[in-house]
Amino acid sequence: MSEAMGVKKGFFRPRGATAFILALVLLLSWSAPGGDSCALAQEKRLRILHVNDFHGFAEPIRTLKPGEVLGGVAYLAGRASELRAADNVSSLFLAAGDMIQGHPWANMTKGKSSVELMNLLGVDVMVLGNHEFDFGPETLRDRIREMGFPVLGANVGGLDNILPYVLIEKGGVRVAVLGLVTPETPRSTHPDNVRGMTFADAAALCRRYMPQLKGKADVIVLLTHLGHLNDLELARECPGAHAVVGGHSHTRVDEPPLVGGTLVAQAWEHAKALGVVDFTVAADGSVQARGRLEMIRPGISKPDDAVAALVARYTKELEAAASEVLARTTVFLEGDGSRSRETNLGDLVADVVRERTGAQIALLNGGSIRGSLPAGAVRLQDLQAALPFDSFPVVVKMKGTEVRWVLEHGLARIEEGSGAFLQVSGLRIAFCPTAQSGKRLRRIETAKGPLMDEEEYTVVVNDFMAAGGDGFTLLRDLVGKDESWRGETIRDMVADFLRRRGEVAPVTDGRILTVED
């Protein structure tokens, strides 16, 4: 017997009949199916660490709760190192998409800073998120070449330097990781960014690959950027995986549920949590999985020195480029709720764009607003964080019936937190969120009275919507191939407005109301 089996050499030396009986007992225990000694010897442990929807939020984030600060990727790296160092556990680090775009810390280098960070973190595998495509296909290919780990997208066609899945062995455990990307990607990034690419149904691709993976791996993980509700459905439609590790919906899943035999996990957003899934592989090949979140905040662990230095270097560059104070706000500018309700930041942006372009109505998708601004000084980098996209205004003439269609489309998936929900200016609307999709509007009023179906209006949208993004196909058909989209970005318009005003205090005015039938 070896020391690994828990018996020290020389501790007990039986002789004669005693030795024979002991040897026979040991032989039976080793050879009997399910024998405890055999199971103990062959049982293996694997730990998966995972993050998603980082979006470049490298520094700790002050929340609305007084005194609460969460995140800080240097602290996440430190905690990850501690969890990796556990005895008798092999580990994998997975990234579930939307890692290279969002916050100015990442945007100023078109994601290069985030790639350097992931290489330092020791990421083993990543699946593409929809926002990985936001800098265009050539930049994405450059970023993928810089990544020191494989990048997955089994259901993505037309992108040549990604893989459908990988097979990795860790501590004697064979692990298959299959990557699946949201098929809605062409609607959530500018269509030019995915031209020539295809995004197939995730469940169908999963079912195609699952038979191959079952014969090659002890543990099968679906690494997805589909959203938590879709992950739950995927576990039902494509059984056989031991875990789904997901992203896209920014869902905080403290205790990952089991769907059939599949654990479904997601680790919130912005490096505010580190996901942990622990697998135990028994001698008979059965697998047990348990998941949890490790909340990340300053002081939770010793920060990783190399990661902290990287964050500081790019933060210094960012501050030098974007430290200009544009104005002061005497109120909290809320943007985080812009996918489901009127917000004062949404009102401000829509008002600025409508006034700047001279349009009668402004309709801007709430998903274009990606953060809030605390009361106090508003720096350029703060505005860049809240409005991270280089969006341009597009003015189009629309009949009242067409305006109504666009508004209804914006409300169609409000229960999912869809980015298509609209922030408006020049309109006042009321809607019933529980009514049938497509029939939720109850009232639409313009500055001159009720919206008239056959009257023509000038409406400003952003170029993402005008190209059919978020499913606004009617706008794409109306605008066509208008080449006058470029010029001053919406973010530049808001920055100029803030500079001229010096101080702002916008409040919501009830232009978007919810009602009950």
From the spread of the alpha carbons, the general shape counts as: globular
Number of strands: 27
Helix content: 25-40%
**What would CATH call the homologous superfamily of the largest domain?**
Metallo-dependent phosphatases
Q: According to CATH, what is the class of the largest domain?
A: Alpha Beta
Uncertain runs with pLDDT below 50, 5 residues or more? Answer: 1-39, 481-486
How many helices in DSSP terms? 16
Q: Roughly what is the average pLDDT, rounded to an integer?
A: 90
Task: Using the CA coordinates, give the radius of gyration.
Answer: 27 Å
Domains, number: 3
Structural class: alpha/beta
Largest sheet: 6 strands, mixed
CATH topology of the largest domain: Purple Acid Phosphatase, chain A, domain 2
Please state the second-level CATH architecture of the largest domain: 4-Layer Sandwich
- The order of strands across the largest sheet is 6-5-4-1-15-16
Strand content: 15-25%
The span between the termini is 75 Å
List keywords for this structure.
alpha/beta; 3 domains; 6-stranded mixed beta sheet; 27 strands; 5'-nucleotidase,  domain 2; single chain; Purple Acid Phosphatase, chain A, domain 2
